[in-house]
Amino acid sequence: MATERSTTWRWGVCSLLLCATMLMYMDRLTLSVLAKRICDEYGFSNVQYGQLDTGLSYAFAAGALFFGFLVDRIGPRWLYPGVLIAWSGAGVATAYSESIGVWLLPDASGPDQTYLGFMLCRIALGFFESGHWPCALVTTQIILTRADRSLGNSILQSGAAVGSVVTPIIVLLLKTDEAGGWRPPFVAIGCIGMFWIVPWVLLIRREDVERKPVSADAASAPDATPKLWSADFCRMFAVVVAIVICINLTWQFFRVWLPKYLQEAHGYNEDQTAWFTSAYYIATDVGCIGVGFWVKGLISSGWGVHIARAVTFTACAGLVLLAVAVAFLPSADVAANGFFTPMSLVLLAMLLLVAAGTLGLYPNYYSFTQELTRTHQGKISGVLGTIAWIGSGTMQPIVGSYVDATGKYDRAVALAGVLPVVAVIALWVLWPKRSAPPV
């Protein structure tokens, strides 16, 4: 049930949640943008680079469960700014990874010390960033009506794209060419996050994010949420588990490996990669926001809420499937042939379509999770986050091993394109016909 505040206030809060998502992705993506520079400077292999994301992923998995249960108990009003301060601090600390490693392992070799510092910072970043999603999804579930949640979740999720667009630009402006010139972006981006706390505290009152008691009539209504562990609940939960595993593996693959893929498989330089990475994430934002408005438009024209979500989710998976074609394109060899060749432009255009579909999957996924329960959204989000990030953490070093062994990315890119189709099949086959969302 939406809170009794003005429409302007509700969408203003959604915009603030967008900013929180943006900040989270800025802290997370800085390493991906600078990955080749850092790996070359310290001699890290692709396996080691993948393991850094494994550390973040497993920490995120543990934190998602912890914060999911915690937010259902104490609410997001003070927990949300607390986790944001903590992950911003971890982002700043990444710039000092070498010093952290020297302090902890004074007798080890330099690269080992630095790698330990990076790993600890990524673990801290992942653990505290995991608190974002339970806090954000509990907030949108409480303040928005059912019909508005897909759009609200689109706005919330689009912060990932905004942050991913802004991050490469900040990196380009702040990095320098000398050794260690990768450090200033980590410090600047981490410090920016601290400013988010002020509008949150001013906008959110305790009663705004408290759950209202559910009346007996509402609990027994035909559109009430399914009872925990009923047959419908179990089927719905199985579907969202399948969805989050599949779409998260795809999203996290491109988040981590896209810059290295462009540079190593197709010969783009660091600056070209950074600018295209920004364009890629602009496309993800278009897909994310576009899906939210598309769903709202379909509902306004008389479509059922669930069918509108399912159809748009399927369309996005179709766009992501283009990654299979991308995987087997010949190398653009931009270093030898130049940027504006037909092969280069076709490759980048197809990746932009993949980008739009990849993030466009998420708003409806979040809305599906909000149909399971009124009172345990934090726990549901936390458990699903744990499952998703264990999968992502397991995937990254496997991808790194494959790339180190073969020097290719083709099969990994193709698999990333196929996975959302598996999620679509699960949705259409297993989701109960009585689709029982909360009001």
Strands, helices and their partners?
Layout: H1 7-33, H2 35-42, H3 46-74, H4 76-94, H5 97-104, H6 110-129, H7 132-143, H8 146-174, H9 183-192, H10 197-203, H11 216-219, H12 231-266, H13 270-300, H14 305-320, H15 323-327, H16 334-337, H17 342-360, H18 362-369, H19 377-406, H20 410-430
Short summary:
The protein has 439 residues and is mainly α. 78% of the residues lie in helices and 0% in strands.
Structure explained in plain terms:
By secondary structure, the protein is mainly alpha-helical. The chain has one domain: Growth Hormone, Chain: A. The protein contains 20 helices and no strands. α4 packs antiparallel against α6, α13 crosses α17 and α14 runs antiparallel to α17. The longest helix is centred in the middle third of the chain and has 36 residues.
Strand content: under 5%
Q: Label the structural class.
A: mainly alpha
On the 0 to 100 scale, the average pLDDT is 88
Flag low-confidence runs: 214-223, 435-439
Fourth CATH level, the homologous superfamily: MFS general substrate transporter like domains
Q: Main beta sheet: strand number and arrangement?
A: none
Q: What is the percent of helical residues?
A: over 70%
Radius of gyration: 21 Å
Helix/strand order: HHHHHHHHHHHHHHHHHHHH
CATH topology (fold) name:
Growth Hormone, Chain: A
The number of helices is 20
Domain count: the total is 1
Q: Give the CATH class.
A: Mainly Alpha
